[in-house]
Write a structure and sequence with these properties.
The chain has 581 residues and is α+β, with helices and mostly antiparallel strands. The chain contains ten helices and 32 strands. The protein has a domain at 33-317 and 471-573: Methylamine Dehydrogenase, Chain H, CATH 2.130.10.10.
C-alpha cells in the first residue's frame, strides 16, 4: 500500500463531516473507523528484530510470553532459559536483562501497574518485580505444587490471580505482607486446568481445560468463590451432560448455573466448528472490552488446530429453564412419582482422593520448551479425571439399582451384597427398605463438599430421564490453523481495539479479522446465520527461523511483537514505501 492510498483512506476517515460531528460531541456511527483500521492493519510490516548475542549474553531459548506495560513504554519477554528481557518498544533496544529470574523456564508476565509486574515459572513460584530495580525480585510467592502457567490481576479486588497445572487457582493479596509469604487463598480446583483469564473489569473469569471445555464465571466475586464452588467438579458435570444420565453428586451443583444467580454463576461453553472436537484448549485470551474469549485448541490426536472466538457476554433474557432431554422415552402410565431424600456425607474414596496442599505431588517432568509448553494431561489431572469417571460410573449403577428396586416394589435377595459393595465404594444404599413407601424412601450418597451432612431433595419420575441442563451455543468465529509445532502452546492475542487477532502461523504470523472491513465484534450473541469463518488481513509473514509461540499488540501504539523458539523477537508497524527491514 503506497503513501497515496493510505492518505486517501485516512482522509476519508476524517472527512469534514466527521470532524464536525466529533467537535460537537456526537457519537460515532457504527463502522466509522473501519476504513482507518483496515488501512493500518493491512500495512503491517516487520521493521526491526532482536536476538541474543551468544558472545555477550547466554541464549534466551524460546520466547514463551510477551507483555507491554499499561502505557506501552516497556516490553518484557519471558524466556525459556530462566531469563527476562526488557526492551524499549520504540527504539527496539534492550534495557535490562535478568539471567536467573527463576530456577526454571519463565512462562508468563503480567503488569500490575506502570512499574510493578509479576512472573510465573515451571519452578512452581510466582515472582514480583519493580522495573526501577531489576537487580533483585521483590518477593517470591510459594503455594502452587506444579508448573504455574497464568497470571491475572483483578483491578477491582487488588488481588493477583494465578493458575497452574496442579489444577489450582490462587488469589494473592499483594498489600498484606507476612514474614514468609503473602496472604493467599485457593479459590478453585479442577483437574485438567490449562488457562485462567479475567475480563478487563474483573467481572468475569474464563477457564479452559485440557478436556475441551471453556468455563465462564459470571459476576465474579473472588472473596466468596472458594465457598460457592467448593467441591464442584466441571468434568463430572460435563459427563452428566454428555451421558444424559443423572449423577446426583454432579446435579447437586445445578444451582451454580441458574441465570438468576447474583454472583459466581457458572456457564459451560463446549460448541466448536465441524471437524474440531477440541480435545485440548491450550491458549486463551479475553477481548479488550470483555466481549469474547479467543482460544486456540487441538483436536483428538493433534489431527487439526483451530482458532475460535466465543461470546462470553451475559444474556439479559428471562431466566432459562433446564433443557429436557427429548430423546427420553415417555413415562409409563400410572407411574407414581416419588421424592428421593439424599443424605450427603463425605465419601471415603473421595476424602482419600481429594487434592490437598499437603499431599505429595509427582515430580515435574523434564524442563525445556517441549515440556513447558506441552498441552498433554499432567499425571495428577489424569488421575483426577479417572477418579471422577469411576465415581460417576458407580453412582449411575447405584441409581439404576435403586430405581429397579422401587419399580418392582420389592427388595432383591442379594441386597446385602449390594450394600457391602456400596459401603466399599463410598456410595451406600438404603439402610432399610422393608416398610417404607417409595414416596418416603431415602438413601445416602457421597458429598463432594466434604462438610457435615445436608439434605437435598430431587423430584423425578423413575421411568423417564431427568431434566439435565445443556449448554448454549456461543461460537461466533473460527478458522483452521496450520497445526505445525505439535506440543507447543501458541499464544495468540487481540489488538488494543479488539478488531484484529494475531495468530502465530508456523514460522510467522497472520492477522485475522471478522470481515474484510475489519469491523468490530458485534455486541449481540450468535445470530441466525451461525458461526462464521474469520478473514485473513493482508498476507501471512514468515519472518522467523523457528516456530512462533508468542505475540502481543501494544496497548498504545499500532505495534505488534512476535517471539519464536530460537529467541528472536520481531517488531511490526504500519509502513508504506520501501521495506527497511
Amino acid at each position: 500500500m503506497g503513501n497515496r492510498d493510505i492518505f486517501n483512506s485516512r482522509n476519508s476517515a476524517f472527512s469534514p463531516h466527521r470532524l464536525r460531528d466529533w467537535e460537537m460531541g456526537f457519537q460515532k456511527p457504527i463502522g466509522a473507523d473501519d476504513a482507518m483500521a483496515k488501512s493500518l492493519y493491512c500495512g503491517m510490516k516487520p521493521i526491526a528484530s532482536w536476538e541474543s548475542d551468544n558472545t555477550r549474553t547466554p541464549p534466551t531459548g524460546g520466547v514463551f510470553n510477551l507483555e507491554f506495560s499499561p502505557d506501552g513504554s516497556l516490553l518484557v519477554a519471558a524466556c525459556e532459559k530462566k531469563s527476562l528481557q526488557i526492551f524499549d518498544p520504540l527504539t527496539h533496544q534492550r534495557t535490562h536483562c535478568v539471567t536467573e529470574a527463576h530456577s526454571d523456564c519463565v512462562n508468563c508476565v503480567k503488569f500490575l501497574d506502570a512499574r510493578m509486574f509479576a512472573t510465573c515459572s515451571d519452578d512452581t513460584t510466582v515472582a514480583l518485580w519493580d522495573v526501577r530495580n531489576m537487580k533483585k525480585k521483590i518477593r517470591s510467592l510459594l503455594g502452587h505444587l506444579r508448573w504455574v502457567k497464568s497470571i491475572e490481576f483483578s483491578v477491582k479486588d487488588k488481588l493477583l490471580v494465578t493458575s497452574g497445572l496442579d489444577g489450582s487457582i490462587y488469589t494473592w493479596d499483594i498489600n498484606s505482607y507476612t514474614e514468609c509469604n503473602l496472604v493467599y487463598q485457593r479459590v478453585f480446583h479442577t483437574s485438567s486446568l490449562m488457562r485462567c483469564r479475567l475480563s478487563p473489569d474483573a467481572r468475569k473469569m474464563v477457564l479452559c481445560t485440557t478436556g475441551g471445555l471453556i468455563i465462564i464465571i459470571h459476576d465474579l466475586n473472588l472473596s466468596t468463590l472458594a465457598q460457592d464452588l467448593h467441591g464442584f467438579k466441571p468434568n463430572l458435570y460435563k459427563l452428566m451432560q454428555m451421558s444424559k444420565q443423572l449423577i446426583p453428586i454432579a446435579a447437586m451443583y445445578d444451582h451454580l448455573f441458574d441465570s438468576t444467580r447474583k454472583e459466581n454463576r457458572i456457564e459451560f461453553v463446549s460448541d466448536f466448528p465441524d471437524g474440531n472436537d477440541a480435545e485440548v484448549i491450550s491458549a486463551l485470551q479475553i477481548h479488550p472490552q470483555g466481549w469474547s474469549a479467543l482460544s486456540r485448541n487441538l483436536s483428538h490426536e493433534d489431527r487439526s488446530e483451530w482458532t475460535c472466538i466465543h461470546d462470553i457476554q451475559p444474556e439479559d433474557a428471562c431466566p432459562t429453564k433446564p433443557t429436557r432431554d427429548t430423546s427420553a422415552p415417555p413415562p409409563r402410565r400410572n407411574m407414581r412419582r416419588f421424592r428421593l431424600h439424599l443424605r450427603l456425607r463425605p465419601s471415603r474414596t473421595e476424602t482419600a482422593a481429594a487434592p490437598s496442599e499437603a499431599d505429595p505431588e509427582p515430580e515435574p517432568g523434564p524442563s525445556g520448551a517441549a515440556a513447558s509448553a506441552t498441552s498433554r494431561l499432567s499425571p495428577q489431572g489424569l488421575s483426577s479425571i479417572q477418579n471422577d469417571l469411576w465415581e460417576a460410573s458407580i453412582t449411575v449403577k447405584q441409581n439404576r439399582m435403586l430405581q429397579d428396586i422401587y419399580s418392582r416394589g420389592q427388595v432383591r435377595r442379594n441386597f446385602n451384597m449390594q450394600r457391602i459393595t456400596g459401603i466399599n465404594t463410598g456410595i451406600t444404599p438404603p439402610s432399610t427398605l422393608r416398610a417404607r413407601h417409595p414416596r418416603d424412601s431415602t438413601f445416602t450418597t457421597p458429598s463432594t463438599s466434604g462438610h457435615y451432612p445436608r439434605e437435598v431433595i430431587i423430584d423425578k419420575c423413575v421411568s423417564s430421564k431427568p431434566f439435565i441442563r445443556q449448554n448454549k451455543d456461543r461460537l461466533l468465529y473460527y478458522i483452521e490453523e496450520t497445526n505445525e509445532g505439535r506440543g507447543f502452546i501458541k499464544e495468540l492475542c487481540y489488538s488494543a481495539d479488539g478488531r484484529i487477532v494475531c495468530s502465530p502461523f508456523g514460522c510467522g504470523m497472520r492477522l485475522l479479522a471478522l470481515n474484510q472491513q475489519c469491523s468490530e465484534l458485534p455486541h449481540l450473541v450468535q445470530d441466525s446465520s451461525g458461526p462464521r469463518v474469520m478473514t485473513e488481513v493482508g498476507q501471512s509473514l514468515g519472518i522467523h527461523q523457528d516456530l512462533v509461540v508468542s505475540s502481543r499488540f501494544s496497548p498504545r501504539y499500532h505495534m505488534l511483537v512476535t517471539g519464536c523458539l530460537d529467541g528472536k523477537i520481531v517488531w511490526y508497524q504500519p509502513y508504506s514505501g520501501e521495506d527497511l527491514y
